[in-house]
Amino acid sequence: MDERADKQEVANGACPPWVLRGYSVLADGERGAVVDPEGRIVWLCAPRWHSDAVFSALIGGGGYFAVEPEDSWHVWGGYYEDGSLIRVSRWLTADSVIECRDALAMPASIDRLVLLRRMRVEKGEARLRLSLDPRPGFGAGRVRDPRLEGGLWTADAGELRLRLAGAQQATWNPESGLRGRFRLRKGEEHDIALELSTDADAPRLDPQQLWRQTEKAWQRAVPDCSNLAAPRDARHAYAVLRGLTSSSGGMAAAATTSLPERADTGRSYDYRFAWLRDQCYAGIAVATHGPHDLLDTAVRFTAERILADGEDLHPAYTVDGGGVPQERQLPLPGYPGASDRIGNKAAKQFQLDAFGEALQLFAAAAHHDRLTPEAECAITVAVDAVERNWTRPDAGLWELDDRWWTQSRLSVVCGLRRLSATLPDPIMQRCAEMADVIFVETRRRCLRPDGRWRRAAADDGPEAALLTPLSRGCPPADDPSNAITRRFIEEQLAEDGYLYRFVHPGIPLGEAEGAFLLCGFTMALAADHLGDRARALRWFERARAACGPSGLFAEEYDVRQRQLRGNLPQAFVHALLLECAARLNDVSALPR
Which of 163, 308, 359, 422 has the greatest number of CB atoms lying within 10 Å of its CB? Predict the structure, then answer.
């Protein structure tokens, strides 16, 4: 018997799965919607990132929202408007050209989302079909009491109130939801606005006003990147990071859960939470460009978590600083090759390098004079925690078994040294002395006689995680171990211009997992730090090519099949692209 025979059947044959590179994402900081190549919304959690999904067709559940041509003989395309996550889907039929402009309205509210959809016909005449089938609770529920009042459809969707403007002529079917058709001629536009809210007294739905506010919010949110390498990609990366960052401070690692890193291996995870390390990467990347808002947000959230939890700091939280729920399975078929799960057990691990990245973030903020009093207190707490725990085995960057990982120690040394170069006494002297003690012992345990850094104490294997501290000055650029280690990693873990994390014994590179895009960008930074700009640019260009048509990156890239693997959009990959774009054009706002 099929092991999934007892799971809920796929509720929406109308939304077949696509390869991951074909999807795009809308986000407003509080939640995200996944759009398939045909313009259907197939994933949306509400009201927040870690809430239950209302649309879960992406992972085999029920619920989706589509506006699409009735003519099945068409091709699709689309693009993001510059410096935003406003997405335009585009369809070409035999006699018409149609665009659908989508966005989650901004400024966002934690208890109310509005999904804006504006259809426009560029050529000919279009017949469009609307399908709205909300299924709260990851597809397990149905909306209640749908009714048309004052030109608005309203209904109860679990604990949410649903309102829909722009579909007065549609009809509600108890089994399939709202269905409607409409016709537009060349130059005509039609607005649809879907609201999901916990507030029974939400304001009037005015699509025109909401579009104006959303456009202005994106214009304010994303800085000019014209002086960076790959300026359009850099702005897009910044927009992705902004779209993933909540007003509560936390940045979701990705918008989705359970998209497989490798088919049928059980490697499907829930990334709808804020990993502290990833947010530090984003803050450091933004600081490399300049003192922009996302730097302040990262500093605030990181400081709050350290002050609240001290040495019991968790690797991950909800975006509002809450605990990550226990991992559990969902009774859904899943995206092909995956098993559906929510929650994440990694949140219970001890990861020493999270402290190291936090200290580096605080040093970057201090360089821009953006260090808050709370962050200054958090520095003391973090340094105390490092002093008591740096000899303790941890799970490391890749969240594996507890060991004496080299990268974790070097990350802490890097953070301490950067603070010692930035802050006044007495913290300056304390950080410098502690960094020296940790570095000497790490060197004794983890540096081979030939000058190459080990992966971990008692593990001589190649490890791409080492590129992160190496690229940020630990050890200093003139230390021979840097070039020796970087060259060994490239020789052992690179294929066809892409980099893998580490060797899986007995399994060729590319068969155990995909190339890790974070590592490609850190290799570019490491090469540049060692003075090899040409090599750095080659790695940068190769890594930034590993996206889909939407310009979004997942965690891994299947080089042979040229496909994305894992949840998307992966925040830390976009963060490292942004950092590379700043450093490789000689405009970095931070010292090397």
Answer: 359
